[in-house]
Structures are given as C-alpha cells and as structure tokens.
C-alpha cells in the first residue's frame, strides 16, 4: 500500500507541549468540580442509537445529519443486531445511566461531571472537529432533592464563572434565556408557527422545513439572510407562565447576589430538543473566531421521562475542551512551552549512571528534569538544553567525584558551582 496513513479527517493527534494545556484545563476543572461537590461519571463512547434519537431529538442537526451510526452485527445466537452510535454529546448518556442505576432512588441530588471525546460529522475547521472533547457536568435528581430549584441553575453558572476565572479567562459573556416549560412552551411554539406561515417562503430551505417540524429551531438558524426576518418573530419571554417567569427571576437574583454578569438573549434556544427553562451559552471575545461558543447548557426537566425514566429535573452544561485550549493558547502562547527545571548533561559515558541517579533524586523532589547523553559533545548538550530547560546541570568526571556541579541559567547567562546538597534549592529558585 503506497498511500500514507493519516488521522481521519476532522480528527487529530494532540501532542506536547499542547497537551500540557489540556492537562491544565482538566486539572483545574477537576479541582473546581471537587469543591462544588461533583463526582466523576464515565459513560461508554457508544450507545444505542435510540438514546440520541429520543434524547437529543430527531429534528436536530446532530441527529438528522451529524451522527456516526452503524448496524452492529450479532456475534452469537443470543445477540441481536443493533444500531449503535458514537456519542455526539454526553447528557443523554448520563441521564440513561441515572435511570439505569436508579440514582433517583437515593433521594440525593446527583452532581456528576465528565471529560471525554464526542463525535459529530461536521465540516472540520478551526474549533470544529469530528472528534472533539467536552468537559461537562449535570445536576439531576428527583424533585424532592431540590433539583428544580433556581439555586441549582445559578450555582452551575457561578461555578463556570469561577472555573474560567481560575484558568485566567476573563473576556467571556454569559448569554441567558428561559425557553419555558412543557406547559408554557407549546403556546409559544404555536404563536411562532403562526408568525412563520407568511414569511417562511423567504427563509432558507432548512428553516422552511423547521417551520413545520420544529419551529423553535428557526431561532437557532445561522444563515445571515434569515436574521432580519427572525428578528421580527415573537419572543418567548412574552409567553412564559408565572412559574417559569418566577423561576427565571430567581436565577437572575442569585447570579446578581454573587456578582456573575450576564446578558439576556431572547433568541437563545440551543441546538438540542431537551432544554426547558434556563438556557445559556458562554461566548468568547478572542481566540475562537467564528466558533466563539465556548460552552452551552441548560435545564432539561423532562429528559429523564422522555427516555422512559422517572421524573428527574436537571441542569447541565458542556464546554468544548478544544475551544477552551484554543482560548488558553491565544491568551498565553508561552505557557504552552513551559520549560523544564533542569537538563542534566553527562560529559562522558562514564557519567551516565551518575546522571540518571541525579535525575531520579531531582524528580523525586518534584522538579521537572530531562537528560542528555554522555556521547554528546558539550555544544550539543548546551543547544539541546537551551531548547527544553531553564538550566543545564553539567556532570563531568570531577563533578561526579567531588559532588560539586556546574549549573548555568540560560535566561541570565549566569554560571555557578553548586554542591549536590544545594542543587535542589538552587533549581527551585527562580
Ligand atoms: P455550535 O453552535 O458551535 O455548533 P453546538 O450548539 O452544536 O455548538 P453543543 O452541542 O451545545 O454545541 O456543545 C457544547 C460545546 O461543545 C460547544 O459550545 C462547543 O464549544 C463544543 N462543540 C460542539 N461541537 C463541536 C465540534 N464539532 N468541535 C469542537 N467543539 C465542539
Ligand atoms: Mg453544532
């Protein structure tokens, strides 16, 4: 076979030093989740296709055109052929697991987070891939556990503001809306349908179809020519019933109390069918270009029942980790190339064992260390060290026997003799 094998279109290898940023993002997220009482859930990457058809919605872009679905053959008499799908998102899987493991019967509010790959057949571009990663969380439980409380919506949003803040990301805007509940939304959908009848012929082909099958999706349309017409359509805020209005007002009051800034966006309906009441997105000013939605989420009070489970209101979000890393890169390009504390350069093969023992000692002390090789000439060692480390530690014949080492700091050009006892504190100093 003559052709070169490459990563599949829309998928990519993540390599160092970029993976340092992925680790930083994940470590910060895990630390924040722990402080807010979330535990980790890991669901399978493949699920029964029905889960997404029912949970995400047949009419969504995801289910209608973006899923990787295949017919999985039976391997034994006891098995049936089954339609499987690589998960395009993780909320449906989490709710399936909630139902399957009867987590609602604990009476406790479930606070679960996940980090992992998702798959959608989209047109690949910056910030949009066919295998991408999400960091997400869900708060779900029986109504008696307080899962319907607006306090939960506000807590999730405040946690996201804190997480971004801890990552040094400040130029986000939180866009918020309420899309109503199963009791008030149908009235709005009717009004929307009626308002769409006279204008729908002027909209894009997708919207003409949506106007019949799922009018809310029209609000989500990205086609520029459609926007002036969409701007004239009725707004959901005018159709919320008293309960939904009070719920939304309580979310806003709690956000105000903890100083989380937001912008109301009456058109924000989000791309998935399961949302009720609070919906939100965090948009970025810099780093992402047109793919500027860093994360999205909302409340899904009816999802569990749609999947055949008990009543289990919930709220969650999914953050695009690929986009998060792009944002971090744009903010702090040099952080991506954080250098090692030291590079140990043995001056001859005889010093190799000493160098390895020294590296072990420094690494045990928490320092980040790499090594050259006794076969390298001095010049080569210096060049290699300068690329990857802040300092070089030279291990010559003398150094190994006397325990006095030569240390050069590249930034200042300073070169000093350091005893082995002082070495760790020297390397830890700036
Ligand atoms: P978009 O409008 O950008 O297509 P979406 O509404 O489809 O986003 P969600 O399903 O809400 O996105 O997923 C939550 C987050 O996951 C998005 O805000 C984005 O950061 C990320 N995301 C979604 N699809 C992709 C993708 N194909 N590649 C990279 N990140 C993605
Ligand atoms: Mg999308």
Could you describe the 3D structure shown?
It is a single chain. Helix content is 36%, strand content 21%. By secondary structure, the chain is an alpha+beta fold. The strands form 3 sheets. The protein has an 8-stranded mixed beta sheet with strand order 1-5-6-11-10-9-7-8, sandwiched between helices. Strands 13-12-14-15-16 form a 5-stranded mixed beta sheet. A 3-stranded antiparallel beta sheet has the order 2-4-3. The mean pLDDT is 93. Residues 89, 120, 122, 127-129, 132, 134, 271, 291, 293-296, 318, 320, 322-323 line the site of adenosine-5'-triphosphate.
Radius of gyration over all CA atoms, rounded: 27 Å
Give me the number of helical elements. 15
Structural class of the helices, strands and pairings? alpha+beta
Give the neighbour order of strands across the main sheet: 1-5-6-11-10-9-7-8
From the spread of the alpha carbons, the general shape counts as elongated
The percentage of residues in β strands lies in 15-25%
What is the count of β-strands?
Answer: 16
Could you give the distance between the termini?
Answer: 53 Å
Low-confidence stretches: none
Measured as a percent range, the helix fraction is 25-40%
Q: Give the names of the bound compounds.
A: adenosine-5'-triphosphate, magnesium ion
Largest sheet: 8 strands, mixed
pLDDT averaged residue by residue: 93
